[in-house]
Amino acid sequence: MSERIVDYLVIGNSAAGVTAAEQIRANDAQGSVLIVGREPYAVYGRPLISYLIAGKTTRERLGWKDSGFYDRIGIECLVGPDAEVVSLDPEAHTATLADGSVVTYGKCLLATGSIPFTPPIKGLDGRENVHTFFTLDDAEGVWEDARRARQEADAEGRSARAVVIGSGMIGLKAAEAIAGYVDEVCVFELADRILPAALDAQGSELLQRLLDRHGIMCRPGLSVQEACGDGRRATSVILTNGERTPCDFIVAAVGARPNSKLAVDAGAQQGRGLVCGPDLQTSLPDVYAAGDLVQVTDVLTGDERPLALWPNAVEQGACAGRYMAGAPDAEPFDGAFAVNAVDFFETSLLTAGVINPPEGAGYETLARQERDSYVKFVMKDGRLCGYILLNRPDNAGVYTALIKDKTELSAFPEEAFLDMPLENLDFSRDDRWKRLHAFYPSCLDDRGWKETR
């Protein structure tokens, strides 16, 4: 059994872990850094796996960092099943890998992300043509079955059909990716609308119609209660209303859970995710966490929950890395709010903050639908706290900044939201200056632009 001794151990080779490693190295040029990850790949853009299947990108272009990234910043990276951390001893400051080797660390970051939740549906487990849609390997499996479905359907003179269970972002991106291979994608969703966490009823209804044009049939209010087949492959599903639907393969995308078992088994405090302080240190000594497995405060509602979004993982990873390395400019992570930006075929969707406000809580809404576009703005106490921009992406960043900065909206007429998207010049000179200073602090001083030579 081998043993390593490192100053910093990063468990998880994706957005949060890699960003943390960058910040550790930026603030500690000498400390040894080891990243370990179960997937046998260098860090890649996980949100891009649907584009791989759809033919919009390649394996080579999935990489989030270039091939020389790890060596260039002087960190070691171990990947593959043998590099998975199977146990953590926070008192001894050791981690045991699947191959039996032990790593002794000074400080440790948990960046293990989230794992798919597979519902306990009869006949689903163990089928070789049932897939989740979280990793590159998942995407490869879906891709192989999609091509196989097309070939077999053509040979047998029938339609090819895929079933997707769940209509969240992951489920709908999977549906979009495989729509080019099969004749029909059936998306089943137990909730009463698609994208229930990111859209309201009106926006969901419009998006459902737009997806239907591409052979994606969404059926909210229905789910799968049993997968049926002969042997190891599912050939049909029985729905919660008793209806049977044939299929060539299934994508299960019901949801995700924080991948926090390693930390919890080691004694870490957990709520809906790992509980961390503003420096993102867990309740375990010298153990930090960042990304999907962390419980964060929604700064708009006060709710405590994981926020499984790539930008949030990057921000938390940077924060944790700075604190781990003792950076003098480290700033606390005080919370965040959800921001989504996604395309489905020619349809663009951007959402942020509170989009389904509770009744009687003092919220006001402005909404308008025109043909294939829909906008909605949610306000409270004279400030913007959420928006939906479906097929009207103009200046979404301005609206996000309004939410983040808690800008008073009294100076803006209603038409500035529904009729004419806000632009930078709609703000006062002082507000424009504040926003410029926030985005470009290295180029500005208190008097204006710094001289550049």
From TrEMBL:
PANTHER family named among the record's database cross-references: NITRITE REDUCTASE [NAD(P)H], PYRIDINE NUCLEOTIDE-DISULFIDE OXIDOREDUCTASE DOMAIN-CONTAINING
Every FAD/NAD(P)-binding domain range: 7-317
Q: Sorted alphabetically, which Gene3D superfamilies does this protein's record hold?
A: 3.30.390.30, FAD/NAD(P)-binding domain
InterPro entries this protein is in?
FAD-bd_OxRdtase, FAD/NAD-bd_sf, FAD/NAD-binding_dom, FAD/NAD-linked_Rdtase_dimer_sf
- List the cofactors: FAD
Q: Which GO terms describe its molecular function?
A: oxidoreductase activity
Name of this chain's protein? NAD(P)/FAD-dependent oxidoreductase
